[in-house]
Please model this.
Amino acid sequence: MAAAKRPPLPVILLVNDLLDGEVLFAAKSGKGDDRGWTRDVREASVAHDDAAAQALETFGAQQVALQKVVDPYLVDVTLAEDGAPVPRHYREVLRTLGPSNRRDLGKQADLQS
Amino acid sequence: MYRYDEFDERLVRERVAQFASQIERRLDGSLSDDEFKPLRLKNGLYLQLHAYMLRIAVPYGTLNARQLRQLALIADRYDRGYGHFTTRQNLQFNWPKLKDVPAILELLADVEMHCIQTSGNCIRNTTADQFSGVAYDEIEDPRPVAELIRQWSTLHPEFDWLGRKFKIAVSGATHDRAVLRGHDVGVRLVRDEAGRLGYQILVGGGLGRTPMEGKLLREFLPREDLLAYLEAVLRTYNLEGRRDNKYKARIKILVHETGIEKFSAMVEDEFARIDGTKINADPEEQARIAAYFAPPAYEDLPDVSRALEDAQAQDEVLARFVEHNLFRHKRKGYAALTISLKPIGEAPGDASSEQMRLVADLAEKYSFGEIRVTHMQNLVLPHVKLDDVPAIYAALATQNLATPNVGLITDILCCPGLDYCALATARSIPLAQDLSKHFADTAKQKDIGELNIKMSGCINACGHHHVGHIGILGLEKKGQESYQITIGGDATEKFALGELLGPGLPAEHVPEALDKVVGVYLAQRQPGETFIEAYRRLGLAPFKAAFREVSDVVA
Model:
């Protein structure tokens, strides 16, 4: 079926975890379709073409149907020097970090490198 | 304050059990997310940028010490040790987990609290003047009315699926501290020529993307008819209000499109059809409720407290605290004491669990166990003896709760914005913190005097920017956060919507823009004239010209 309007490539997939509400990213797969979720954007799977973006969306929809996550959507990113995806829009950057006025809360605190 | 009877207790416990069951059914897939979402919203549970958010009802902004301690316990056990007090006098927790929500709701039920109807398309928390029952300018305590409305509107079977949210505010004083003209319905206690008490009813006010001032619906409504009349208003709205477009679904749009005369006629028609005896609270019920709000056992005290006068003379900061944070009480020797949750450089309206426990202790010791939440996101100890103010002040200072800035330029009203909220278009808290630090100098603050800055991180206006003396709206411009500044808003009985000063600015230029605006006031004010009074006299032009000095450079 025709793809809905997507943000420009490359993209990652964001969701909220249903049980605890945390932001999760579709993770780099092990092999084939064996995907999972990660709390850390540095481990997010980056789609560089339409087929990969579609695969991310399909995975998101499957996980929604399994009552694991809600509100999946693709986010366009640039890649940092170390290859980590960085969202282009400031709203999505905040979702990878946490509240900017409380650096002791959210991923920015929980996921120290 | 109101205490639950066995019906209230059972209703709240059943609601907790019901929601716990709905969560289970969501998790096992028997409820879809589309089915679950309206149900969780009506239990105050949002999904935000980083986590869930739980909004707890604080009925007409009244809390007791035991309840505040329980909120602190919940903050520590199930959240991140703090909560946020909102512009509708509620409390928000920003980090609850869905699986923990039933346990949180049980803890709330243990202290007669809940999250029912704090979100969703239903009647929300009815808010009230934070100085209800104690203000010197009060006609009558409006809290019994607010409690009556609360009971009538909770799980009302006809109004559980409205076209949109519905917000009611109540005031019993001559000055409006409850933003009546910015609500869907405003209820104002008044006396007629014969001195009888009744209500003036306002309708169709609202902020948000299409701000409108509430219109006079009924000049005088006899007391006994209140619920039947509100029923008529809600029924008319429910039947005639738009449901085709979420952004045109509030009652303000219906009133605007219909015209107030025709709308009023529709309401009166419906009111005439309603059998009041089936809906209105009978006098015994009204008396039963009113008894919960009887004044506490005040002492007979002199007008002036020697102890406070002496203490002030020796402590300049205490003197400023007394000047700005105390509100004139109807009872001699007492004051309503506002605790500023706007310490310099901190997030407006946030309180840590430690701070909550301290306020609870002080309420118990000095204020008959009672606390209020204000729509300006501060707290109030409503009945303190002037004699006790120095001790209270000293205790508050140990937890950074003694900032003497109530009503001043650093008493900023600010929504959570894009740091928390999924609806936001820009962050609001960091700019509020910067402005707070920028204007921190206490002598300068005193010189500027009364000036309300109100900030929203999007056009939904939860930060009331339209009715700020200075309003700030955070938007996105060319991929960056951009802040539009308005001037001349007023949330009181002199209700006014602010006017735009010019194009949006990046955050780093907002402080200097406000310096320019405040500078016009300081240069041109007449003796004793406040900022908003000077604006009304001078008009927009000089402020706009001063603003351009910054915006032209930035452009």
Q: What stands out?
A: The mean pLDDT of chain A is 91. Chain A touches chain B at residues 16, 18-23, 64, 66-67, 70-71, 89-91, 94-95, 98-102, 105-107 (CB under 8 Å). Strands of chain A lie at 11-17, 23-26, 37-38, 69-79, 85-87.
